[in-house]
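User: Thanks for the earlier help. One more: Phosphatase PAP2 family protein. Can you show the sequence and predicted structure together?

Assistant: Of course, both are below.
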Amino acid sequence: MINTENPPRGSLVPASIFVVIYAVWALLVSSGSHIITMFDNAVVGIICNNNPANVAFATLFTNLGNTSVITIETIILFIILITFRQYAYAWFTAGVMICANGYNWIIKHAVERRRPTIHHLVYADGYSFPSGHSVGSAALFGILIVLTILLIRSKFWKSLLIIIWALFPILIGYTRIFVHVHYPSDVLGGWIEGITFVLLGYAFLYRYYIEPKMLERHQE
């Protein structure tokens, strides 16, 4: 059931725009562009420090973006949606997460960017671009934002939850830079990729589920 009278219209246009932005960003990273170097250096200079409280927060909070944690959270969300018979939303969730993380693996091995050489504050292996933590968190919490818009009636709770969901990927991305396992451009690329797949998934959800349901209601 759709608990909102005016769900945002789903379109491939915003998703296509993000695809282009992501493609340009990935090309700049893979080519070692000076623009990327300047961007990374500027952001690192602002974010990174040796404050013990910040180090403790970053090394702990970054674990919330681990693949295992994101996978468990996705499975729990999927089960909850199935339990409440929100089958379309459940498959929307699963589809976006599978595609986003699968594509992330492909891009990592296509670009083959090495991680920052500075001492890492947490363990990290594999290639650097894009940040898997950023992709996974942007996709999962982007899905939660979509579900909140569609299923929550109260404007207060809707606004509050959207703010909370948006903060998680921002903070997780911040910690990946702070603990020196990713360049800022990795994190930004991960956010763009995650958002892109959420937009693509919602475009299909709207076209094949929400729009037909709305037409049925108007015809009754």
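User: Great, one quick takeaway?

Assistant: The chain has one domain: 12-41+65-211.
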